[in-house]
Every structure is written in C-alpha cells, then in structure tokens.
Amino acid sequence: MLLLANYFLVYEYAVVARNYGLGLLLGLLYAMARTSAAPRLFTIALILGVMGNANVYAFVLSGLLALEYAWRIWFGPGRPAPVKLLAAGAL
C-alpha cells in the first residue's frame, strides 16, 4: 500500500511522464494476472503487448517478462527431468 502512495508514482509517473505511468500500471496488472489462480495466456499476452507499446523501457521489460513466462511454461514444474537435461544440453 505504501508503494501506491509514493510521490514518484502519484505525481512524477502519473503527471510528468504519462507513458511511464502507463508502463508501470501495465506491469502491476501483469503481476496481478500472474498471481491469479489460473493465469490466462491471452490476457497476459495482451497486457505485455500493450506494455511493449508504452515506451522503450516497458518494451524491454515486457520482452523479458514474456521470456520468463515462456521459460516457466516450458521448463516449469511438472516436466520430467530428462526433458530439462536435454534442453539444457541443447542450449
């Protein structure tokens, strides 16, 4: 709660640099979508796509978050160990 009442978030990001505020808002929406019980791929892709169009820094962050999400899907829990070893060997 204290983060949302911060000077930089309330005034600097929202008034002075509007596109940074949009990137931050979409980043927080992404975090909220990822912590839900069943994250939906379309919702997360839409949030990251719009976030990538906000500014350059949000573009880089959305790309990294998309890579992290893909990594979690491909190599996350529930995958057998030989697949992980084969993927690590291929890299």
Q: What does this molecule look like?
A:
- This protein has 91 residues and is mainly alpha-helical.
- The protein has one domain.
- Helix content is 76%, strand content 0%.
- The protein has five helices and no strands.
- Helix 2 packs antiparallel against helix 3.
- The longest helix has 20 residues.
- The chain is elongated and about 50 Å long.
- The N and C termini lie far apart (41 Å).
- The mean pLDDT is 79.
Short recap of the structure:
This protein is mainly alpha-helical. It has helices at 7-16, 18-34, 41-52, 56-75, 81-90.
- Rg (CA only): 16 Å
N-to-C CA distance = 41 Å
Strand content: under 5%
The amount of helix comes to over 70%
Number of helical segments?
Answer: 5
Q: How do the helices and strands follow one another from N- to C-terminus? A: HHHHH
**Structural class based on helices, strands and sheet pairing:** mainly alpha
Write the layout of secondary structure elements.
Layout: H1 7-16, H2 18-34, H3 41-52, H4 56-75, H5 81-90
